[in-house]
Amino acid sequence: MVATVQEAPAGTLDDVHVMAKTLSALTQRSSELNTVAKDEASFLSENLSLSLLHMEANNIAEIYTAASNIVEAISSILDTPSNVSKNNSDALLASLNNVQSALLAFKTANEEPTIIREAHVKLMVNRLTPDRLHTKSVHIANCSCPSFSLPKLPPDSLPSAEPVDIRMLSLDKNPFSWNERGNISGVIGALSLSKTDGSNIVVENLNEDIEILLPRPVGEEVKTSLLDLGNYSTTIIDLSSANTTLILKMVPSIDPLPFKLFLGYMDYPTDSNHVAMTEMPHQGTTQEERYTWILGPEDLKGNSGVHYLVVRPIVGPGIKSINASLSITPIMAACQFWDESVLDWNSYGCRVGIKTSSLATQCLCKHLTFFGSSFFVTPNLVDPSRSAELFATFADNPVVVCFVGALFGAYLLVLIWARRKDVQDATKVKVTVLEDNDPTDEYRYLLCVSTGRRRGASTSSQVIITLLGADRKSEPHYLTDSKKRVFEKGAVDLFLLTAPYSLGDLHGIRLWHNNSGSHPTWYVGNVMVEDLQTQQKWHFLCNSWLAVNMGDCSLDKLFPVSTETDLKRFRNLFFTRTCKDFSDGHLWFSVISRPPSSPFTCVQRVSCCFSLLLCTMLTSIMFYGIPTDPSEQTLDLGHFEFTLQQFMIGIQSSLIMFPINILIVSIFRNTRRRETSCCKNRVKAKPEALDQSSSSETPAKNMDVNVTLETVIMDIARIAHSLSSSAKSNLPFTEPWFGPGQEDDINAALSAVDDFIKQNNKPSDTSQFKSQSFPVQPQLTEGSESLASGSTDESIQMKSNKAQYLYRQLCQIDKELCLLGPSGFHNPHSYSQAVQQVQDMKGFLEEQIIKSSSENLDECPTTKLNTTERTKSSLKKRLCCHGGLPWWFIFIGWLLVIATSVVAGYFTMLYGLKFGKKRSISWLISMIVSFFQSLLIIQPLKVVCLALFFALVIKKVEEDDYQNVEFVGNTRNTGDFRDQQTVRRDSSIYKPPPPADIERMRRKRILEQKAFSLLMEILTYMGFMWMLLLVAYGQRDPNAFYLNEHIRNSFTENIPDSMGLGDVFIWAETSLLSNLFGDYPGFITDGNSKLVGNARLRQLRVKKKSCAIAGPMFQFVPDCRAPYSWEVEDMGSYDPGWNYSVRSNISGGVSSPWSYQSQAQLRAYPVWGKAALYRGGGFATELGPDLQNASSTLEYLLRNKWMDVYTRVIFVEFTVYNANVNLFCIVTFILETAATGAFQLSSQLHSIRLYHSPGGLHIFVWAAELIYLLFILYYMFLQGKLMRRLQWAYFSSVWNLFELSIILLSWSAVALFTKRTLLGDRDMDYYLNHKDQFASFFETATADSQLRYLIAFLVLLSSVKLWHLLRLNPKMNMISATLRRAWSDISGFLLIIVIMLVAYSIVSNVIYGWKISSYKTLADALVTVISLQIGIFDYDEVLNCSPILGGLLFGSCIVFMTFVVLNLLVSVILVAFNQEQMHHKPSDEEEIVDVMLEKICSLFGMGYKNAKGSVGPKESRTSDLNSKNMLKNDLQTRDNKL
Q1: Which residues of 1349-1372 are buried (b: 16+ CB within 10 A; e: fewer)?
Q2: What does the alpha-carbon distance between residue 1462 and residue 1469 come to, in Å, rounded to a whole number?
Q3: Are the beta carbons of 373 and 333 closer than 8 angstroms?
Q4: CA dihedral sign of residues 426, 430, 434, 440
Q5: Are strands 492-499 and 443-451 parallel, antiparallel or unpaired?
Q6: pLDDT tens figures, 610-640
Q7: Is this model's pTM higher than 0.70 or not?
Q8: Which of 189, 389, 1176, 1280 has a 20 to 30 A CA-CA distance from 271?
């Protein structure tokens, strides 16, 4: 635009007007103006103002229009978020000065001022004689703008013989914001005087003050303190700046009230130590003057911050107190002017006046220029000494106190729940000693099994694990705990697994389960195995399903050990860190998802949350409502803006709140449990070991008494089994049962064990020993090869561990043989040989152990701690040396929690009582919204961003440290274990399920899931249909039909089908007015319906000579008036009687029935009539508000022939409200003519409900609408997943398109519902503000109609979708298949039917369209022909018109259409149905239906037998129970034999 102006500058006033209007339009969106655009707009406004100043105009009105546009553009430029630069400021102020000069050019002395009002700029100019300058104040009427009261000016400063020009500006935005000093926060006002030639009149150094009243910005609050002078007399005032004036406004309860005021800085003042002191009341004529104390910056001695004001009553002798009160309102303000010499704000020559109040600042100055005020509002302070007074107002303002009290009550209830959760978690933080561990096994492994957090991740199956090491693999172990549930969602379960000796480096684990229980699927997360002897850890990142219907559908999997690279992958680090931060790091979320092993208990977390919430509330209410400084620079970051003040408030809040809360959390997290010191544990270690050893001897002795030959045989067999499981070749015996001659067998078995020990402990290299004795089992998957090439030291240590294990077992055999003695053998020689064999093997093993270690084996280790006790001892040593705070720090943490909660809660209540009820509610709402925004959005984003940082940058693998754990498990004697070991290992749970069983379970599970999904789909859709029908019928009212009929019949009774112009006027004067204004004022007809606003008459006309006349008839018909169309519509403006007006085609300020008004002016919309589509504009007039005025208006229109031969349509529009049925009825009567001179009357009535019914039914409808939206979101989620999976194939299914259509129509209905609500509110607001005008609800009614149509189609489509849900019915499936088979033929016949219908409709329209109304248009003819096919037809009207032609035409239509084509169509469908019966394939979902029916029957305890004769769930359950009982009896029998 700048380039255009430079190329073609404004040459005329019209050019300036157009350019100014364009500039105003371009600057409307001020937030989109950048710095360059703002500069160009400022300079362009200056150029336009200069052009305006030098243009010649006829009157001030022409100048005023262009000047208003320029001022509007300047207002938009000032409204930009960023500060205005100095160049911009100079250009804008010069523009305003030029505009004022241009307006003053047409002013005469002592007339009314010329004012321009825009959003942020108000401008006033006037011309007065000098004697009238001081008679009244200079201000802008009806505006919150500055006011100037001038004193009598010196005569030598004013011109003697000419008037004085007054120029005044009021700016809401600071034009000098480029200068950041001054702290201007109020309205900027400017007043200057000039001569008629434009030269300035200097006004300065006056003897009397110029009084300037500057209004205070909206939103700033001034706090009032009420002091009871009988009890206390102190209040706190916080001065935000040292360059401000403090005004203390006081109102005593009694007048006069003498007292002294002492002001102290940072301390309570005394007689000798104070900043300022005065005695009240002062001298003055009014109470305000007597009880106002003004302290300027010099009185305050340049101090800023907290000041203490003490009020000391002056009483007579012997009087200690008085019964009086004093309210004190501190106001801080400053009066500054713009000093153009130094380009800065200055306060010289200006002072704050005594009339300064909370609404305006009174400035008293000696000169004229730009003036500004600055308000420094006291921050939110509260005086604890006023607690009693504040709590006395509880009845008036209980909001915050009740809320804080409710928080304390809720905290106590949550504390009870948290304590119970801690007790439950305590049972989970235990290491379960597996029941199938061998008590003689000495090597211990800690298993940490994490279950995933996915839906359905927990399992009820029996889980088995096998550790796969480099040297050997462990026995399968059943992971279970009889005292707690294991493998729950998100849980971490700890197990202690034992082995005879080390397995070597673990290369993998094998997991499987038997798919039993109600929820057998299991999502295993991570598994960690720790060697408790060497503290070496192996991690296994499983993250997969063990299920027959999820993942890769497997129940048995091998997982290789994870390398360092696997652990440091982004996926593992990110999800591990995120889960840990949400479950443990996030203070609020961790209350529910706290790890049971964490020392930070749930009770402590709830208490920390409570303390944090109260501290947050305190800091929020401390800084709530502090007004922002408008002059402060705003930092714009896209859609986010903040100022330095907001930034500092955030820092101050954080410094107040977070340090103490972080300290509390750190104390609770890092405090150790109350246990004995390490030194005490060391001292007591030996006695405890001795006690446990002695206690273990007693059961050993009891066992020794029962030693038999059979016991010894079982122990030898167990040793042989442990050796053979890790050897390449088994020993020559495998059955642990010996027959007659068992002594020889014992000797042979001992010889075989001796050979095995010596063979595998030959003097050879370590690697050979290792490869022979502990071969790696080839059980791992591809890619997890053995890494058994360990170091020599590790091999020697492995050899030593195995030798020590064998040595301890042989010591046990030796002891048993000694206890058994020769009497237990039939042959004493066999006994001696067995003892000698055992001694030889012990001696050999001693030599091997001594070679590899320095352990003293002079005595057999007969007294040893069991596995559980030794594991406890080792973990206690680790825990004992673990760092942390002393146990007594827990009391400090609780003391801080109680102190912060009580103090924060107390002061929050005081602030709430001080705020008042309205402000307290406002603060409470904002605080709750801010809290949940932080809790649900900001803090989770912080967690995710922190996890991303750690996963991408830090890449550190964090390991869990399980310290506070206990050991649980069954402690049984070795003999008891021996009796059950064989049975346990032979149990079916220790064997992986075979593939055939897995496939059978998988198929059964998939069928059950499909059946469940089908049942849920049916039930969900039934609920969806129910909600849809509730919504559909909640949008309509059966009374709407009766209301419409009543109004239609009242206004159209006894009206002929065709009327002339005179009849129209007669109908209007009689039926229309008599029914429009009934017996009750403001009501129509019988007094039940209230007339909303006025009624309106609107007509559309055509232009004169709007059609061509046939040549021969031109001399007989001089004028032709065409039918209505948009091209010939008359849109001019006339004088009464349709005479051409001098102001033709120029709209006036007041609407006239003779002037055309546009659609926007009339708030109307196009209307479909019977003859044409009519525009929303026209020539309109209103009828009302009573019968007398309406009759006068009609008489005026009739007298001036408002309706004539050029009128084509007349609309009578009004709206009524019937409170009995709570319905609005929008009524439109249409009288239209097709240029024939006859008017046909039709009506359009639409009843809507804009207000909900006062009863409780609307709440039920609201709930149904909300639930329906939830259903739509649910179906959107399902269809989105399906669309993502099928991609383009999704659109090939008809039912998918049905679902998509329902979703789209539903959201369209939501949009229309919102639009109707907004339009209804808009129209009602217009009516409430313009009750004496016509209120148009047409757009609201249109939106309501569209909404009803959409809901109707939704019900139709949703009902058709029921067909899809009935697809499992064989008959419905047959019908669907028949239609699919015959669709090609059906489509052909449908095309033929359409062609024939169109052909007969065209013929009927051509023949009968001019004489029979049923065929007057093609659409009417088509409807009539279709009605003929279903038997709805008027034969008489056709036969009376033309019997022969009509009989032939419609007879042939019946024969060809009904007898031939339609019957052929039915035959095609029947043939296809017959073929489908012959070749029909049953649906794949019939089996799903059987499973679903089985489940339903089992739910009610009934048996079910499907079509194939298979047993239902009841019989199946009985057979399962029988098989389980048989298995149990078999195991019991084998146990008895052993």
Answers
A1: ebbeebbeebeebeeebeeeeeee
A2: 11
A3: yes
A4: negative
A5: antiparallel
A6: 998 998 888 888 777 654 444 344 444 444 4
A7: no
A8: 389
